[in-house]
Specification:
Layout (H helix, E strand, L loop, with lengths): L1 H12 L10 E3 L7 H15 L2 E6 L8 H12 L9 E7 L4 E7 L8 H17 L3 H16 L3 H31 L4 H14 L21 E9 L1
Parallel strand pairs: 1-2, 2-3
Antiparallel strand pairs: 3-4, 4-5
Amino acid sequence: MRQKWSSSLIALALLTFPAPAGYVNDFAGILNNTQILAQQISQFEQETSNEISIVTIETLQDQTIEEYAGRLFEEWQIGKASKDNGVLILIAPNEREVRIEVGYGLEGALPDSLADLIIRKEMLSAFQRGDYQAGVEAGLSAIMQAIKGEYQAEQKTAQWQEILASSIPFLIFIILIIFLSQKGKGKNNWLWFLAGMFFGRGSGGSSSGRDNFSGFGGGSSGGGGASGRW
């Protein structure tokens, strides 16, 4: 038993990692659009200072994904040194495993239970059908929302949107009755109200920041996060 433990420690110590070439490092060659992911992460880093790295690898080199992710995180020092606000998304397609490793400073916003939920709900089903790009995009989006405190709120908002959608025909009927019953200048007020309901929704624009990666900032991880298999 002691010999097996010693061999594992030696193998872990001998792990070598290439230098990161950007926020996204697709060493396994499974993603079909790394640029869009890198731009999203770059913009997120500019807005929040949080650093996210997506890494795919061909093999875990006989290590657990937790061990490999911890060593890679330590080697690359993802996140700012003063904040430890980094996140690593590690995918090992040959072993069919995925890991979200979270820096000390983000463990409150992205606790283990939420990281596990994101893996199970957003990523695994896409990975099971071989669509790694979709799974990574969904996982990245959920992680950024969680860090901003919006991931759970989005689910509640979706529920309210369903309720409101089912009530729209009734609301329109009531509004039309009120509108037709009005006389004089009141008609104009209700007309503007109706127009506002149907045309007043703002359209959210999207912007993409340039991938201005210049290296990670010296962050560290305490082993927080979650892992999954498919």
